[in-house]
Structures are given as C-alpha cells and as structure tokens.
Amino acid sequence: MSNHASPMQIMLRAMLLETSAHLMGEQKKMLERLWGALMENQNKATKVMRDQLETFGRLEQEILSIRTEAAEDRKKTEQLRRMHEQTADELRAVREETAE
Q: Fewer C-beta within 10 Å: the chain N or C terminus?
C-alpha cells in the first residue's frame, strides 16, 4: 500500500468532507429552527401563565369585594331585623296601653 493517496481517494475524501459539512450545516439549521420553535412555545406558555395569574388576581379581588359587600349586607339585614323587632315591640306596647 502506498502512503500517497490516489486522485480517486483525494476526490472521494473531498466529496466526503463537503457532504459532511453540508449535513452538519443542515443539522445546525434544523436545530436552530427547533430551538426557535421551542423558545416561541415557551414564551407563549409564559404569557398564558402570566395572563392566568393576572386573571386569578382580579378574581381574588372581586371575591374579596363581594365578601366585604356580603358582610355589609348581612350587617344591614341584622340592623333592619332588630329595628323591625323593636318597632313591633313598641307597637305591641302602644296597643296594650290603648287597650287598657
């Protein structure tokens, strides 16, 4: 065997190197596209999660507001009930006085 490469071997080696370089370039492009798609999906998912957190925050504020309003309504209802009972008691007392 000769230490010197034949012209055919030199040509085949050059073709192999060119093909390898082309395949590596295509693989790099494919990986870059996949990475870009992954990052885009991650950004979309992050935005969806951020939007959901904002929505949850607004809902939490609405719930607190409704609870506060409900507590105030219960307080007013209790005051009205006491006033009604007091008025009924006073009316009963007036009727008893006039009946005597």
A: N
